[in-house]
Amino acid sequence: MTTTTAPTSATRPANADIAALILRVSMGVLFIAHGWMKYSVFTPAGTAGYFASIGLPPFLAYVTIAVEILGGLMLIAGLWTRWVSIVLIPVMVGAAYFGHGSNGFFFSVEGGGWEYPAFWTVALVVQALIGGGAYALRDDRA
Predict the structure, then answer these.
(1) Is residue 141 part of a domain?
(2) Beta carbons within 8 Å of 10's beta carbon, 6+ residues apart
């Protein structure tokens, strides 16, 4: 008769590693979706026009699209998760302040309030602190 033993803590990811994986992948998917929306729906030129209308340099639209899509892919893969999260924080702070700040707090208002990008900023800070977690291609834990 063969018996099997449960995986030990050394061979299975801890709950925190699984949580980091879930956070990393879900944020990665959302960043890709938002970057792709700016590219395919609003178009890069349209996004640049919007950025100009809120007082930002239009070239930042192109940078934002690239950072959101590439950053999302890197988060999903678990490549340099801490650094990618830190790079994405100013994008979300900018979205909260410039894109939604004048609309009020709640995201349900017309034009969207700043609550969603503010929460996303906090999630990025958490991701930067905990690292990539389980199944990251490049382990960047301290």
Answers:
(1) no
(2) none
Confidence band for 120, pLDDT divided at 50, 70 and 90: very high
33 has pLDDT over 60: yes
- 61 inside domain: yes
Whole-number Cα distances in Å, 51 to 55, 62, 139: 6, 10, 35
> Are 48 and 64 a contacting pair, CB within 8 Å?
no
| pLDDT one-digit tens code per residue, 92-106 | 999 999 988 888 888
* 5 domain residue, yes or no: no
What does pTM read for this prediction?
0.86
Q: HSE on the CB side for 104, CA within 13 Å?
A: 7
Which structural domain range is residue 91 located in? 15-130
Which single residue is written with the structure tokens 């938002």? 34
Residue 136 lies in a domain: no
The closest alpha carbon to 67, from 105, 39, 42, 26, belongs to 39
